[in-house]
Design goal:
Largest interface: A-B, 63 and 54 residues
Number of domains of chain B: 1
CATH class of chain B: Mainly Alpha
Radius of gyration of chain B: 21 Å
Largest sheet of chain A: 2 strands, antiparallel
CATH architecture of chain B: Orthogonal Bundle
Number of strands of chain B: 0
Helix content of chain A: 55-70%
Number of helices of chain A: 11
Strand order of the largest sheet of chain A: 1-2
Number of helices of chain B: 5
Distance between the termini of chain A: 39 Å
Distance between the termini of chain B: 63 Å
Structural class of chain A: mainly alpha
Largest sheet of chain B: none
CATH topology of chain B: Helix Hairpins
Shape of chain B: elongated
Order of helices and strands of chain A: HHHHHHHHHEEHH
Order of helices and strands of chain B: HHHHH
Helix content of chain B: over 70%
Number of domains of chain A: 1
Structural class of chain B: mainly alpha
Oligomer: heterodimer
């Protein structure tokens, strides 16, 4: 056992030494220095550039324009990974879904935390909802977007579960796993529609936002009337907001099934 | 040695140390829950490292969001000279959410293992038969 501990300590020291030497010799290239990479310069220059519209994404937010325009397919794959993680969670709890039906619906009075916590939760809950919607709808103009807004949205049911109970969500707010699954599927279908729409409208690339030199037609315009929507970025942000928010709410609902219900169903 | 390279070495060493410690926790942790905690520390540190790599030194450092919808060429030139690298931020946004989803999936698995076996100690689960 002692030899092993010594070996682990030596390995850690060696790792740190390698890192220090690499950083001192400049092995980290641009990181962090006064200059940024040429690739980052390209994105910063063209994300909103009214003088060269051949490459622009029509969004002042460089991160969102990269997330859903320049590297859009990448983000689509990441959404698929997220989708699979949630689906595997739901699959693990599949038995419960069937059997909880009658037993889980009982009304239970006197559940939850004290009156102070419940009242402050009632005040904070709508505020969280409004913040999440505003972050999603301004995702193409200000820092934020679908992923962040969805994560904020998922906090509000978690807060309700902690302060009241799972039964409060199910019986009073009528929020069930099926509704969350439906909302999440609507978000994912919207994403696929927005991705496929340019092909239907005559463009040559999937997920095309603004017209490009090799594909001059695009169904999305940078603004609608007085509203700046940055083409497809607005719709993708809202769809991702639905998918992420409903997906996490679903996971929180599954995690909060009470232990007694579980033991009864599993027969332990 | 300039103050910038000193800061670089300090940040890299701090972040790599946390990564090394969390890797040790993942490999040598006795309970599945502690392994999961070490895994989340590992993921968050990797994200922090990525964000750090995208930072830039300078007199004026700005977020990669241009504060106008009708920028002039001077605005764009200033933006390129002041904004931090947006590429790592783009990667980290998705990485955080996926990290959270995978953490919750692993938490599901650990809860299920505890319900079925009554323990989350790795060695005890390995000794179970049948």
């Amino acid at each position: 056992m002692k030899g092993r501990d010594v070996a682990i300590g030596m390995a850690a020291a060696l790792l740190l030494l390698v890192v220090v030497v690499a950083v001192l010799l400049g092995g980290t290239a641009y990181t962090p220095s006064r200059e940024i990479r040429p690739l980052a310069k390209f994105y910063l220059e063209y994300c909103i550039n009214p003088f060269n519209k051949d490459w622009w994404a029509a969004s002042p937010e460089a991160v969102t324009s990269m997330l859903w325009d320049y590297r859009g397919i990448d983000t689509y794959y990441e959404t698929s990974v997220f989708f699979l993680a949630i689906i595997s969670g739901v699959a693990l709890f599949r038995i419960v879904e069937v059997k909880l039906g009658a037993e889980g619906k009982r009304e239970e009075k006197g559940f939850g935390l004290s009156l102070i916590v419940k009242t402050s939760t009632r005040i904070v809950f709508p505020l969280i909802l409004i913040v999440s919607v505003s972050v999603a709808f301004h995702g193409h103009l200000t820092p934020g977007g679908g992923f962040q807004a969805g994560s904020i949205l998922a906090v509000s049911p978690l807060l309700l579960i902690a302060a009241f109970s799972r039964h409060y969500l199910e019986n009073r707010l009528r929020l069930s796993e099926d509704k969350c699954l439906t909302l999440r599927s609507i978000g994912l279908i919207l994403i696929v529609l927005v991705i496929a729409l340019p092909l239907i409208a005559g463009a040559v690339a999937l997920m095309q936002n603004q017209p490009k030199p090799w594909s001059p037609t695009s169904p999305f315009s940078a603004y609608v009337g007085p509203l700046w929507i940055s083409g497809s970025l607005f719709f993708l942000n809202v769809a991702e907001f639905l998918a992420v928010g409903a997906g996490f709410t679903l996971l929180f609902l599954l995690l909060s099934i009470s232990e007694e219900d579980f033991r009864r169903i599993l027969g332990l | 040695m300039s103050i910038e390279s000193l800061l670089q070495v300090y940040c890299y060493v701090a972040l790599i140390t946390i990564i090394a410690v969390s890797l040790y926790g993942i490999v040598r942790g006795h309970s599945l829950t502690k392994k999961l905690i070490a895994l989340t520390i590992f993921g968050d540190t990797a994200n922090a490292l990525m964000i750090y790599v995208g930072y830039r030194f300078g007199e004026e450092v700005f977020v990669p969001v241009i504060p106008t919808l009708n920028p002039s060429p001077e605005d764009i030139a200033w933006f390129i000279s002041a904004a931090v690298d947006p590429v790592p931020q783009c990667l980290v946004i998705t990485a955080i959410v996926i990290n959270m989803a995978i953490t919750m999936f692993l938490a599901f698995l650990i809860i299920q293992a505890y319900r079925l076996y009554g323990t989350v100690a790795v060695k005890k689960i390995a000794r179970l038969r049948g």
